Amino acid sequence: MQQPRNTRSFSELFVGFDKTIRHYAYDRPRAYLHTLRKKFENLPETNFTLGCSFAEQGKWLDAAFRFRLAIYLKPDFTQAHYNLGCCYAQLNKLPQAVASFNKALTLKPEHEDARFMLAGLTPNAPQPRAMPHGMVAGFFAHIAPEYDALAETNEYQGPRLIMEAAKPYLTKLADMHYLELGCGTGLVARPWRGMCREVLGVDVTPAMVAAAQVARAGDNPVYDRVLQADINSIPAGTFMPNVTDIVVCCDTAQYLGELTPLLKTASATLAPGGLFLLTVEPFAAPQGYAVNRATARFGHNPDYVRKLALAHGLELKRDGKVPLYAHQPAHLFVFAKKVA
């Protein structure tokens, strides 16, 4: 008997084989090339992230290498140029730092952080009136959860120094009104809670405001109210005029630069005879204040502070250097509002 013929077409016999060939010869290589292209596209960001990680560990050479590599792969990577400038500044390679910050500003003229850093590195550069808000908020958001522990590790003496400096000039020891400008987590205010009817705080950083709102002094909240606001732009009438007994600004002026708004607010809210206590990082800036390259923060000339306070009706009671931190002296002023 004759065997039946296979009636399937030649193309039908090779349907499965055709799919296999397509998978290995076309689809799979194409997917691999797509993945490879994505990896190369992400290389600048990958190196930038590694650079940030090394910088947080203080490994400035390793961080600089990663930021340079990110820039090589993506020349217009503005933040990589800025971060590289910060690394060079830490490594004391000042011309390279200046070049990197200038490049960041060329790419993004509104880059205020780069402009701020240049002010500390370039002689006779225009001085900003305050540290950029994003720089301040970013720094404190990062350290807010462990701020109190860091203060203890660094032997922060603010609470003790402010209380000791004020006591000789207090006209009463109870039922006082207290206002702290730049309150942080409330460390300085805690010793005053038992002596005051009202304790108010102001801070610009959301993370620190949140910490201050839950701060405790024994069984009581440290603050009756905490306002999130920029000290340099507190609206007039925010606080009752001529009623506050104690206004404190401790370990904060280094973020402010120009102190006129601070002195104006303190003078307006103080009762006659009320005290204003202020610390600054001393710095012999001819114009009164400037970005100090050594700390990347504002330093203030004590003569500038004295003259500014006098112009706002505050008379000097005492001033001098104090050990605010174990290895960081500050200049502490005690002013009293003039009695008419």
Number of DSSP-assigned strands? 11
Number of domains: 2
Enumerate the spans where pLDDT stays under 50 for 5 or more consecutive residues: none
Strand content: 15-25%
Order of helices and strands: HHHHHHHHHEEHEEEEHEEEHEE
Mean pLDDT figure = 89
Our Rg estimate from Cα atoms comes to 30 Å
Q: What's the CATH H-level superfamily name of the largest domain?
A: Vaccinia Virus protein VP39
Helix content: 40-55%
Break the fold down into its secondary structure elements and pairings.
Elements: H1 10-13, H2 15-56, H3 60-73, H4 78-90, H5 94-107, H6 112-121, H7 133-143, H8 147-153, H9 158-166, E1 176-181, E2 196-203, H10 206-213, E3 216-217, E4 220-221, E5 225-228, E6 244-249, H11 260-269, E7 270-280, E8 289-292, E9 297-300, H12 302-311, E10 314-325, E11 328-337
Parallel strand pairs: 1-2, 1-6, 2-5, 6-7
Antiparallel strand pairs: 3-4, 7-11, 8-9, 10-11
Entry keywords:
340 residues; Rossmann fold; elongated; alpha/beta; 2 domains; 20% strand; Serine Threonine Protein Phosphatase 5, Tetratricopeptide repeat; seven-stranded mixed sheet; single chain; two-stranded antiparallel ribbon
